[in-house]
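User: I'm putting together a small comparison set for a docking exercise, and I want a reference complex before I start. The sequence is below, and the ligand is zinc ion. Could you produce the 3D structure with the ligand included, as structure tokens?
Assistant: Of course. I'll restate your input first, then give the structure tokens for the complex.
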Amino acid sequence: MKPMGKAVALLVVLVLMLGVVGTGLAADKGRIIHVSREHKVFAIGESSTPIAKARPGDILVIETEDCFDNQIQSSEDVIESIDFNRVNPATGPIYIEGAEPGDTLVVDILSIEVADRGVMVAIPGMGVLPDEVQTPTTRVLPIVGNKIIWDENLSLPIRPMVGVIGVTPKGDPIPCGSPGDHGGNMDTAEIGAGCRVNLPVNVEGAMLHIGDCHARQADGEVCVSGVECRAVVTVRVDVKKNTGLERPYLEKDNRIMFLGSHEDLYTAAQIAVRDAVRYLMKVKNLSFEEAYLLASAMVEVRISQLVDPLLTIRAEIDQSLLY
Ligand code: CA
Ligand code: ZN
């Protein structure tokens, strides 16, 4: 190699300086954007107006309202006394720059900070045992540290999760209380910190909305409510281009989980299992039949919730078994 001429050396210095400037811009790219819980929607559709804009790489700190819009303050506030037009609010929608139909909106749940109390309700006619609820019953549960205080003898560790996370659906507007191919009220306990939620983009900007956090909820959500609470959800957003994704799926630790929502539980299971089998076909280069066999040996079919307008099943693959 011959020694650099002066002009070349100057050029190198300039490029290095530009490099430093470039790094500064890159650091600026992941902005932190706060979104107040005052900006909420009860349904989401193509006419919904964005209340904030974010770019891929940005971190959003999103305040969420509880699913009763904070109308329940004590055990005296039974469900008949609240305005049902105000249930299941979600904060948003947030326009994600660069997200276009056919893309995937990637939402990494970084943390969920729950309020210091949660609310549960039992409502005659609702939940898995609807005819057996005689008396509308409300519990307001203190959350102290990492514990939900049930009574003096029983407390449960918190396991914070997001109930509603979605984008604008295809077609007619959908109430935030319903799940579907757009995400929405999936009430899936796995959607906690460390979970990556992948959602199909149907409109320009995707229109992310998040709400309905639970300090804790078991699979099934059998009585119709989790431990419903206000929260602050911190997420990072990203966009994957031209994926053609049709339905939500989750990634957490080594697991990938395909979600199917339908009014019929069996059909919901078919939707989730079909997506899991297609995934196995793709990553292992298998025929449908081979992947179907493999699925029966390793895809865990689980119930996310049994109580929303559509029921949600998830089909889980432990990817450490595949490689
Ligand atoms: Ca919910
Ligand atoms: Zn909820």
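The CA atoms of residues 48 and 235 lie 21 Å apart. The longest helix spans residues 6-29.
User: Thanks, that's exactly what I needed.
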